[in-house]
Specification:
Length: 247
């Protein structure tokens, strides 16, 4: 077995762990997949669309479980989505110079690290009223960068909802899961419209990500928490972020 094949196998073994952890908090995991691909030196040309594709499957599974558990709030989701979907499509159509892409991704991974280390205790206080125009503007900004870089935006949306007290942890996870799905779909359509195609290995990656995503979203939508895995994933993301920003 040559070195390239061995590295690919290691990557595929780590992929379900990443999707498991992200799905447990209602995320698709694109920032984690991009971090892994960066660490394993995947070509930039395939990273963006592959991460968005994996997001579609894992975020869809996560949303299903959180919706079934009764955590989804449509009124919280809609203003963010109205702004984000067209912006994500536009961002998906654009191509970023490779060095700049890595720098932007490295910075955005810092949001993922913050999200992984965010306190997970459930708030019992009543949620504050959503300010529509603020949510709409936030959706536009998050959606554009989601399509541009190849993330779903949940790593930014979830802390924002919690910071503004517009919902509790489970509600934020449920809304973020569907938000990630629609952004990923829009971004991927933007990619396809610009002539981008998927690599055959993407199908294998989908299978591995779905395995972890199914388990993580099921457990995450219940009363379950695993801080050790979150710390481990935060370490992976930190390593990738440093590599992308400095090298």
């Amino acid at each position: 077995m040559d070195m390239e094949t061995s590295l690919l196998l290691y990557f595929l073994l780590l992929l379900p762990l990443v999707s498991f952890m992200y799905a447990s908090v209602g995320h698709g995991g694109a920032s984690g997949y991009l971090a892994l691909m960066a660490l394993f030196n995947f070509p930039n040309v395939m990273m963006k669309q592959t991460a968005l594709l994996l997001n579609l499957f894992v975020a869809g599974i996560a949303f299903y479980h959180y919706y079934r558990a009764g955590h989804f709030r449509k009124k919280l989701f809609l203003p963010f989505a109205l702004g984000s979907v067209p912006a994500a499509f536009l961002g998906g159509m654009l191509t970023v110079e490779p060095v700049l892409y890595k720098r932007i991704l490295g910075v955005l991974l810092l949001f993922a690290i913050i999200r992984m280390l965010w306190p997970t205790s459930e708030a019992t206080a009543s949620a504050k009223k959503i300010i529509f125009y603020q949510a709409l503007i936030a959706g536009v900004l998050v959606g554009f960068f989601s399509g541009l870089i190849g993330i779903g935006g949940g790593i930014i949306l979830t802390p924002l909802i919690l910071l503004l007290h517009w919902g509790n942890m489970k509600e934020a996870a449920a809304v973020s899961a569907l938000f990630i799905w629609v952004n990923s779909a829009a971004g991927l359509l933007g990619q396809f419209s610009s002539g981008i195609t998927l690599e055959p290995i993407a199908a294998v990656m989908v299978v591995m990500a779905v395995i972890g995503g199914m388990a993580g979203s099921y457990l995450g939508s219940k009363k379950w928490n695993a801080r050790f895995l979150e710390y481990f994933l935060a370490l992976v993301l930190t390593t990738a972020s440093i590599k992308l920003i400095l090298f």
